[in-house]
Design a protein that fits this description.
By secondary structure, the protein is of the alpha/beta class. The chain has a single domain (2-211), classed as Rossmann fold (3-Layer(aba) Sandwich), CATH 3.40.50.300. Helix content is 45%, strand content 15%. It contains 7 helices and 7 strands. Strand 6, helix 6 and strand 7 form a beta-alpha-beta unit. Bound molecules: adenosine-5'-triphosphate and magnesium ion (MG).
Length: 212
Amino acid sequence: MVIIIGNQKGGAGKSTVALLLANYLTGTKSCKVTVLDMDYQQSISQKFEKAKILENEEPYEVLAYSLQHFPMMEQTIRQNPKDIVLIDLPGKLDDDGLIRVFKAADIAICPFSYDEFSFESTVPFALVLKKINPKVQVLFIPNRIKANVRYETKTEVNTQLNQIGLVMAAIPDRIDFQRTNTFQTPVAIQAILVPVFEPLYDNFIKLFYERN
Ligand SMILES: Nc1ncnc2c1ncn2[C@@H]1O[C@H](COP(=O)(O)OP(=O)(O)OP(=O)(O)O)[C@@H](O)[C@H]1O
Ligand SMILES: [Mg+2]
């Protein structure tokens, strides 16, 4: 199955969520995962190469990939439908290479924040995605939520996003997330992620396997 992590908004947390989810699915759920890193900075690939030097065995493969090369991967993906391919997308919407990736997606995870600019790029991203692939399940994850901030637009934003997909539990803003590598999520933040990833797994990934 293919899970894309996207939002045209730069810095929304795509690479962070992709990395955390890859760690969770392999570490907690024993899933077979491959990460396709299509980020311009190839931030996950860089962490992966660094971690490989320090550790013995990598729990999943990270492949630096471009949108243009994705069609070469599609046959392999179709031949191994039980394997999870996590795709960390670049923060853009103006590339025709996205069409094939959007069409291949079973689930799309879209990290966002409640500020105006994030919302303004999250909605068009999700709408374009749904137009290209009406069957894809879009899951919105509020990210970098600060404990002491009241988000004025939260209810309104959630209502609008819930018409396109489903708003999941939020990920708080924590410095520990910046220290996550491709082998392990720090124990201190594993617990914070359970309310986000557990329902994502139970209600969408597991369900997908049961249906296919
Ligand atoms: N919940 C969080 N708490 C603290 N820092 C975070 C959190 N989520 C992301 N960050 C930090 O925010 C920055 C941007 O995150 P990230 O690289 O995941 O975004 P992105 O959407 O992949 O960006 P790009 O569009 O450039 O690919 C990184 O430095 C990351 O460590
Ligand atoms: Mg990124």
